[in-house]
Every structure is written in structure tokens, then in C-alpha cells.
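ZP: hey, is the adenosine-5'-triphosphate complex queued? I don't see it on the tracker
AM: it wasn't, my bad. submitting now with these inputs:
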Amino acid sequence: MKQNRRSRGFILTLKGWDKLQASITKADLTDNAQLGFSLEELSSRMGLALHTVSRIQGRSEPIDKSSLQSAFAAFGLELCEEDYTRPNPPNELEVRGAYPQYDWGEAPSVSVFYGRSVELVQLREWVLEEQCRLVALLGIGGIGKSTLAVKLGLEIQTEFEVVVWRSRRSLQNAPPVEEILTSILQFLLWALRKEIAIAQSFDGKVSKLMECLMNHRCLLILDNVETILLSGDRAGQCRPGYEGYDRLLKCLREVPHRSCVLLTSREKPREMIPLEGEKTGVRSLQLKGLNPTEGRQLFEQKGQFAGTERDWQVLIEHYGGNPLALKMVASGTQELFNGKIASVLDYVQQGIWIFEDIGDLLESQFNRLSMVQEEVMYWLAIHREPVSLAELAEDIVTSASKRQLPQAIKSLLRRSLVEKSEEYFFLQPVVMEYTTQRLLDRVKKLGNGVLGIGHRA
Ligand SMILES: Nc1ncnc2c1ncn2[C@@H]1O[C@H](COP(=O)(O)OP(=O)(O)OP(=O)(O)O)[C@@H](O)[C@H]1O
Ligand SMILES: [Mg+2]
């Protein structure tokens, strides 16, 4: 079906796109001062529906030739043969690379992608129907936030005039906010054909960004926002010296604009919390793991495996459906057990930690915890069953730690290390396993003063 529809339409060639943009920019300067044409203005000038204009701009979905002609005519141009072409069914690289106004930079590949249909429907609704200004994808490391953000972005990019992805690498080095702002602005101004004049001051940069986001429909994706958040007591707060990010998030959240900023983070930024909910334009999605069928597909990417339905289910649930964990376990199962799921389960059931890589992943999360948060994690591992806040308060020895307990639990929930069901708190099996191992190591190191767990060595 899709193939048929495709073969009936055309898209602009890069040359045609350039020609049209140049005329739009020229008309901008004469008719429209500095503001730039909005999608609505283009639509009324071209006499075309909004979605047709965004398809023309996006160059990925085909449209009929007469619409392209109208678009060109609206800016005094004639559509020539070199200006349009029939689109090939795109592969991922083409979708990412061929459109100059979509900067996917170092975004991860999604050529292998399973499940997430419910999440994609939900996110499309928030971004496209509700036109949310700020959407966060949250969850533990490896759960698939970045992958889902790319998948969604590639699917909906043609609804936007510009897409900018600023990723793990740039954010992970936690550059000052001004640097990130400059890099985003440079691309936005170029793609929107505006003069690339960037103010020196932080406020000047923010107001330029907001002007772009207000006058044009842009999709801005910021990956790994937790790297600019504080580790320790208060999850979600900005690191000292990075408060500019707080102010930026506040603007993105509060100033009405027509664009969407999509964040991925292991922790929920504090700036997301006050306004979140219906009709506020601010939403967040806590990502859960893949289900056993999807998890199994991920495994089978790595080779052949043997196991009963039950084995698969137990194994995938044990790792909370975490795609990164599953990929690592799949490799380990191939290397060590010739693909036999039952053999891995033997180890898993004895609580033997065999896949170091998952430990590394969790270790990096643990290293960000405050003493009280770490202590809570150990108590949850000792209990093994879900426990209430009151039960945890009984475990904790010092009164200072007791006072900090509610805040610690909140932070751990926000960091996705702890799960909650009704009023009970618990750990995912794989997190429990790691925490138990870590506790045992500490006991070995510190002797029997286990409750020295409240005092970092
Ligand atoms: N739906 C999926 N289908 C197939 N593979 C997936 C899926 N989601 C994630 N993966 C794979 O799992 C790994 C981890 O995913 P991803 O990097 O998106 O996690 P993340 O939540 O962004 O982690 P981090 O917090 O470390 O940034 C990647 O190798 C990715 O390819
Ligand atoms: Mg990520």
C-alpha cells in the first residue's frame, strides 16, 4: 500500500528545495521583516494544506506535482524537471542524512528496533496532537530512551521544519549551557535561513532560541540530560555552574512556543515537575522494559538460542526487559553456554553474577547516590520483598538518615533504581542482584560493621 502511494508522488530534489528556500528567504526579508514565514503563512500563501506544506519542506513524503507547482508559483518560481524526483523507499541512513534541515548528528541507529508500539502512539499523541512543548523520556540506563527518541523523531520529522539532536557525547561532557545553546542556534538559524548572528549573553541566546521555537515548528532533542544534573541528595537538580540549564528548561517549559523539546534522562529534571500534566504542554514517559516476545527477538539478533517458553519468560523478566542488559546477556549466553537459556538460568537462580557489563552500568548509577540513598538500596536488597516507607524507617539507624529517607526514596524513584507498587517499594531483580553483590563486597571489606553502610568508606 505504502509503496503504491509513494510511487504516485514526488519530492523536491535538494536543488529544488534550495531554490524554494532561497525564494522564501528573499520574500521573508521584503514582506515579512525578520520574523520568517510560519507554516500557516506558507500554507495560506501557497494555497495548500498545512500538512502538504510540511511534506514539501520535509522532502520525505511524496506529494502530487501540482502541489509542488503551487508552492513554487507562490514565490514566483517555475517548477523544472531538476527540481523534483520520485522518492525511493527510504532506508534509515537516507532518512537521516538526506534532509539538510534535520540534524541527526550522532544519534544512535534504530535499524534494529522491537516493540514500543504503545509508547510510540502515546508520544505521537503528545507531540503531534497535544503539541506538547516539553516531553521527557525517563528510565534506567539501557532501557531504550535514546533509541525510542530517534525512532519517534524519524517517524515524525516531516511534521517539523527543523530537527536538532544534541546527544550523549556533547551532553555527556556536560558543556556549559552557553556552548550547547550556541551549537543549537547555529544549526537552527542556518536551517531556517536566518542571519547567523548569535548574542554573547546567555539571555540573548535564550531569547533567540525562543524566537525560533515560537515562530517555527522545530523538534529539539536533548539526549542524556542527567549528565548536567546533580548527583547525590537531590536527584534532578542542576549541577553547580550549570544552573543556566535550569533557566533554559524553565523557559522551554513556561514560554508558549510551537515547537517540541524532547529530553531523555535517567533522572527527572526538577524543572519538569511543577507544571507536568494535562493541558500544561509538559509530559513525561517512564519507560519500562521490553516484553518477553520482544526481548526474545532482541536475543535472536545475536544468534541461535535454545530454551522453553518458560525459560525465555523467566530470563527476560529477570533482566526487567532492559534491552541493553538483554543484549549483553545474549552475547554472554552465546559465548559461555552455546546459546542454552537453561544454563544461564542455573546461574541466575543461584544469584551468581556473571555478566560484568551490567554491573558496570549499574555501578555508574550507584556512584551518583548519596550515603542515605545507597543505604536504602541495601535495605531494599536485604528485604528482597516490597516494603513500606515505615518499614524502611525502622531499618535506618541514625536519626539524620531517617529524616532524609523520604527525599532519598523520591530521588531513587526518579533515578529509576527503585520501583513502587501502591505504597511499597522494591528493586528490579537485576538491580537487586547487583545491590546484594555490592553489599557483600562491602561486608567483606568492612568486616561485620555492615551498618557502616551508612558511612561511605
Ligand atoms: N526497542 C528496541 N529494540 C531493539 N533494541 C533496542 C531497543 N531499545 C533499545 N535497544 C538497544 O538497547 C541498547 C540501549 O538502548 P539506549 O541507548 O536507547 O538506552 P538508554 O535508555 O538511552 O540508555 P542510557 O541511559 O545509558 O543513555 C542499545 O544498544 C539499543 O540499540
Ligand atoms: Mg541514552
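AM: back. DSSP finds 21 helices and eleven strands in the chain.
ZP: great, adding it to the tracker
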